[in-house]
Amino acid sequence: MHHEMSTEMQRCIELCQQCHASCLTTVSHCLDMGGEHASRSHITILLDCAAACAQSADFMLRGSDMHGRVCGVCAEACERCAEDCERLANGDQHMLDCAAICRQCAESCRMMATMTA
Q1: Per the domain annotation, does 23 fall within a domain?
Q2: Tell me: the pLDDT tens digits for 33-54?
Q3: Which residues lie closer than 8 Å to 56 by C-beta, 6 or more apart?
Q4: For residue 66, what are the domain limits?
Q5: Nearest 10 degrees: CA dihedral of 43, 47, 50, 51?
Q6: d(CA 14, CA 69)
Q7: Number of domains forming the structure of the chain
Q8: How would you write the chain as a 3-class SS string?
Q9: Domain-embedded: residue 2
Q10: What is the pLDDT confidence band of residue 116, given thresholds at 50, 70 and 90?
């Protein structure tokens, strides 16, 4: 790598990777639960978040000067996912855990987006 990666960026990459994994496992969890959890809109939100997280991590890992813009979109996707998981959680720990990592990732990605703006 040609540049020194900041601690904040390393942390953001880790959170994006964790959030990506959490959203993908939550898709399976929600499909198993059925009902509104398995609705097209909820599954789409989870998959959008997972894809945005993977893309943000990729952009940061390769040192793209566009990572800030991608992280901004990721923060928005994570926020939407957190809100939807919390709305449907009804005490379900898996859903609450997914919402929590989404919120952490959103905060970190927002910081990456503003640092490079």
Answers
A1: yes
A2: 999 999 999 999 999 999 999 9
A3: 12, 16, 67, 70, 71, 73, 74, 109, 112
A4: 7-115
A5: -170
A6: 18
A7: 1
A8: CCCCCCHHHHHHHHHHHHHHHHHHHHHHHHHHHCHHHHCHHHHHHHHHHHHHHHHHHHHHHCCCCCHHHHHHHHHHHHHHHHHHHHHHHCCCHHHHHHHHHHHHHHHHHHHHHHHCC
A9: no
A10: low
Asked whether residue 85 is assigned to any structural domain, the reply reads yes
Q: Which CATH number belongs to the domain containing residue 98 in this structure?
A: 1.20.1270.360
1 belongs to a structural domain: no
| Section 71-85 average pLDDT | 98
Residue type, 44: T
